[in-house]
Design a protein that fits this description.
The complex is a heterodimer of chains A (314) and B (665). Chain A is mostly helical and 314 residues long. Chain A has 11 helices and 1 strand; from the N terminus they run ααβααααααααα. Chain B is built from 24 helices and 5 strands. The chains are: A mainly alpha (314), B mainly alpha (665).
Chain lengths: 314, 665
């Protein structure tokens, strides 16, 4: 129990420490792919520290909800990121929330951020909030269907069980898992406001979603909102790694912590480079094409579940 | 006049106080019954009703659970009603304008009617109480008859309620069968055949479903529920729909005997359509109370899905999973009655404070109604199924049941349940969007009308009435297990197992039903961790980073400050535009029309949003037209001579005799 608590604390600090680096890495690779030198890997840390030290500028009619949201959403996402096993599955908080609760925890963060977007009463906040909720309405069913496929296979939605099952080698290559993986990647792109759904670097009013929602934030509040976005990216990478490529993860049966940690760093590097490559190779789509993109993800994951029934006869 | 008002005040205090006490006692009694698991259901035969039978009353665990929900809603509604009454008598000293004049006599009768439905143990008493409940609620809807929309809503409600009762009558007639013994005990003795069971189930779905708001029989809900005063709306939407669900549970799980899997399939299809369509209707509404009434449709759909899963698993003899689904259904029933009452009270408070319930005239109420705003936020988050509140626990258990679909033998239910799972997720995500819109437009942003800008916080009684369900929403979300255990006897009576039956040890602060899918959830841990981390974060940042704040004017997109109509702000119809485009076109035939004036023309550009409920387009309008046509034809009969009437009667008699002869032989 004590080790589990210790691992939990290490994990919470680890995800917090690594999240800006992952975002920095994606930006760096993207810049290199575009033929620029790009900022240093440490630039996101400097940006966050700079924002933390700045004063907050609040609109006259900002309510307590606007001021409380950055803290609430940051901790919700931080907690969620702490629940995904990154180097070991022996985490103290693991039994408190399974995969479904984790998705819902992200939903709580989104709910509050969308409300905060509407608090000042400017046009941009409304644009961002309403589009974010539409994207979520499309992404959540796809996500849960993915969970369904995995749960049919593993007979559990606890992430520790899933990782243990997937490392056990009882799985083999499966078409339905590949479909679920594609669906999860598509959902992850949408949820993290990446190209082609949204552009994290844009401030062009007609196309922005996430950035529009947080436009009124400044100073330490903005730092928290941005850090939360970085954590969320890390969380999704960790989630994909934990479900589909859990090798190296220390489970109850053994596996060393150091190997877990190093393999996680390698997975982050690969995933970040892959994301950068993908983002530079596609164009952003119109907001109302998102339905087709995420509808595709839903159908893929549903197909995955049905394939699973057919192939296993379960 | 002042004396008259004061007199009314005393009457109101007596009525609402008495109702609250009666409901409170019933709640206590129901809790003790469930907690002690009274083995022998109490039965009572009253010498009223049909002379050869009397009225049979009986309380088993299921009735006790529903009595708890109904009367729990009754307690808070009485408290809120009392405060509402005082606020409105204060505003309108003229008794003719007191909005809730005719409410007082019918309010306790309505609650009594609902309780009687739950206690009835024979079909006759059940139907009489059912009709009593319908009529009292109809009279309560009519209490606002001075408002222009009420008469049409009340008429539609009366028609739907009558049709529903007729269907239930036929269903119980079929159940009673040849001997015609209407006692539930007698009905349980002989299970009907396959075809008969299907017919009974269909009739009950039509009869009770029209009361619960099953799509496409939901059309009266968004009109009639909001028409009544808010505490009555809370009862109609949060509680009366549950009485209808009780009728479905009683028939499908108890009276009809051992289920076949396709009963669940039928119920599941109905529930899925209801859940998705209900939340789409809710997203399209600009009226606070209509939005809430439509969201009730969605929640009824979710409850029906859970019940359907329980039926399917019960039929395939996996009782522990059936118990999980049943517990999810009962938990969601209790949860929905809590947060829907809460949100209707919020709507009532907003109406009291601003005089309007049009979302496009509200805004910024978080500054004017601080307490109501906090409680409304809890309600909105709970109904959006967000952890760590109670709505999420119900949905979590429902998903756990859905994830057990592979255990079922039929292919159609395996794949069907996967699709239903996606639909439930879609409905939950859309509900979150709906309540971001509800809260964001009404409470956040800038006021969209002078009334909203001048709103004043409501009185203590109303706030207390909102506080009770809000506190329970948090408590159940954090500690659901004791409540699920409390429902245990009701679950066991319906599916012959409890949700924790295959767990050797189940601590009270942890939720881990059935070991078939090895998952657990602990809302308390989540809440505590989030609270502690947030507090630490605030302290650390304010201590070491920065705690400076500068107040400034937000960029108004070229509009001057103050921009009086808050025109640059998102409105209720702009907020749902993305969802309208993504889903509304297909489901609701929604389309926007923009009329843009020519350059140089100073008319404002206009955007009109049109959408139509397919239930009206494809069901009610054609049926209405057909009925009109038929009445035209039948109208001829009114103008015949006596001779022809006698001929007709003779012909009818002959036809009946021939029918009897054919049936007998």
């Amino acid at each position: 129990m004590i080790t589990a608590i210790l691992y939990q604390i290490v994990q919470m600090l680890l995800v917090l420490a690594l999240a800006p680096a992952l975002t920095g890495w994606v930006r760096l690779v993207k810049a290199r792919l575009l033929g620029r030198r790009g900022p240093s890997l440490l630039q996101p840390y400097r940006d966050l520290l700079r924002l933390l030290r700045k004063e907050v500028v609040l609109a006259h009619n900002a309510s307590w909800l606007f001021r409380a949201t950055p803290y609430a959403m940051f901790t919700a996402i931080w907690l969620a990121a702490g629940l995904v096993p990154v180097f070991t599955t022996q985490l103290a908080l693991a039994p408190a929330a399974d995969l479904i609760a984790l998705i819902a925890l992200l939903g709580t963060a989104r709910f509050f951020l969308a409300l905060a977007g509407m608090d000042i009463g400017t046009g941009f906040g409304g644009i961002g909030s309403s589009r974010e909720m539409m994207i979520a309405a499309l992404a959540e069913p796809a996500m849960l269907m993915m969970v369904f496929s995995v749960a049919v296979l593993v007979h559990s939605t606890s992430l520790a069980d899933i990782a243990a099952f997937m490392t056990s080698g009882m799985v083999g290559l499966r078409v339905s898992l590949a479909l679920a993986l594609i669906a999860l990647v598509m959902v992850a792109i949408a949820e993290n406001a990446r190209i082609p759904i949204d552009n994290p670097a844009t401030h062009l009013e007609l196309t922005m979603v996430h950035e529009a929602m947080v436009l009124e934030y400044s100073g330490r509040h903005l730092a928290l909102v941005e850090a939360a976005a970085m954590l969320k990216l890390l969380l999704y990478v960790a989630l994909i790694a934990c479900i589909f490529v859990p090798w190296g993860l220390a489970t109850g049966q053994g596996g060393s912590l150091l190997a877990g940690l190093l393999s996680f760093l390698a997975k982050l590097a690969v995933a970040g480079a892959g994301l950068a490559l993908f983002e530079t190779s596609v164009a952003k789509m119109r907001v109302f094409r998102v339905g087709e993109f995420l509808g595709g993800a839903l159908l893929l994951s549903l197909l995955g579940a049905i394939f699973l029934y057919v192939s296993r006869g379960v | 006049m002042a004396v008259a008002a004061r007199g009314r005040g005393w009457v109101a205090t007596a009525v609402y106080g008495g109702t609250a006490v009666a409901c409170g006692l019933t709640v206590l009694w129901a809790i003790t019954t469930l907690a002690t698991g009274a083995a022998e259901p109490a039965a009572l035969v009253l010498p009223v009703g049909l002379p050869w039978m009397g009225a049979h009353l009986r309380t088993d665990a299921l009735s006790a659970f529903f009595l708890l929900v109904v009367n729990g809603g009754g307690v808070t509604a009485s408290l809120f009603g009392w405060g509402y009454e005082r606020a409105h008598t204060h505003q309108h000293t003229d008794p003719h304008h007191a909005p809730s004049g005719p409410v007082l006599p019918f309010f306790p009768l309505f609650l009594a009617g609902m309780s009687l439905v739950l206690l009835a143990a024979d079909a006759f008493t059940f139907l009489v109480s059912w009709e009593f409940m319908s009529l009292t609620s109809w009279l309560l809807v009519l209490s606002t008859h001075r408002e222009s929309e009420t008469p049409a809503a009340a008429k539609l409600y009366l028609i739907m309620a009558s049709v529903g009762t007729v269907c239930l009558m036929l269903a119980f007639g079929l159940l009673a069968g040849g001997p015609g013994d209407m006692r539930f005990d007698a009905i349980r003795q002989h299970a009907p055949g396959d075809g008969m069971a299907a017919l009974v189930l269909l009739l009950v779905l039509l009869g009770a479903g029209s009361k619960a708001g099953l799509v496409p029989l939901h059309v009266w809900l968004p009109l009639a529920h909001p028409a009544a005063p808010s505490h009555v709306s809370a009862l109609m939407s949060g509680v009366m729909t549950k009485v209808a669900v009780y009728a479905i549970v009683r028939v499908a799980f108890d009276l009809l005997g051992p289920p076949a899997w396709w009963w669940g399939g039928a119920l599941m299809a109905a529930g899925t359509i209801t859940a998705v369509m209900g939340v789409m209707y809710a997203l399209m509404q600009d009226d606070l109370k209509r939005l809430l009434a439509c969201s009730t449709i969605e929640n009824i759909g979710v409850i029906l899905i859970a019940l359907a899963l329980a039926l399917v698993f019960k039929a395939s003899s996996t009782p522990v999973i059936a118990a999980l689904a049943m517990s999810a259904a009962l938990l969601h029933i209790a949860n929905h009655s809590l947060f829907k009452s809460l949100l209707f009270f919020v709507a009532g408070a907003v109406l009291t404070a601003t005089g309007t319930r049009d979302l496009n005239r509200l805004g910024g109420l978080i500054h004017r109604l601080p307490t109501t705003a906090v409680l409304a936020l809890i309600g909105a988050a709970a109904i959006s199924a967000l952890p760590p509140l109670n709505g999420f626990v119900g949905e979590w258990m429902l998903f756990q049941a859905i994830l057990n679909a592979p255990a079922l033998p039929e292919w159609s239910s395996k794949i069907g349940i996967a699709v239903v799972g996606a639909a439930v997720a879609l409905a939950a995500a859309l509900a979150a969007a709906c309540f971001v819109r509800f809260y964001g437009i009404a409470f956040l942003g800038r006021p969209r009308s002078p009334e909203a800008a001048q709103a004043r916080e409501v009185g203590t009684a109303m706030r207390a009435a909102m506080l009770i369900p809000a506190a329970l929403c948090v408590a159940i979300g954090v500690l659901p297990t004791p409540l699920i255990r409390l429902f245990g006897p009701a679950v066991r009576a319906m599916v012959e197992a409890g949700p924790f039956d295959d767990r050797a040890y189940q601590p009270w602060f942890w939720l881990a039903p059935t070991s078939a899918v090895g998952n657990s959830y602990n809302g308390m841990v989540l809440l505590v961790v989030i609270a502690v981390l947030s507090a630490v974060l605030v302290l650390v940042i304010h201590r070491w980073a920065s705690n400076r704040v500068r107040w400034s004017t937000a960029w108004g997109c070229g509009h001057e400050e103050p921009d009086p109509g808050a025109l640059s702000q998102y409105s209720a119809s702009s907020f749902n535009q993305p969802i309208r485009r993504a889903f509304g076109g297909t489901l609701l035939n929604a389309h926007d029309r923009v009329s843009m004036p020519e350059p140089g023309d100073t008319r404002p550009a206009r955007l009109t949003v049109n959408w139509r409920d397919p239930a009206w387009t494809f069901l009610f309008t054609p049926v209405g037209t057909a009925l009109d046509w038929l009445t035209e034809r039948v109208n001829v009969l009114q103008f015949l001579t006596i001779r022809r009437y006698l001929t007709l009667m003779f012909a009818a008699l002959v036809v009946v005799l021939i029918l009897v002869a054919v049936v007998r032989s």
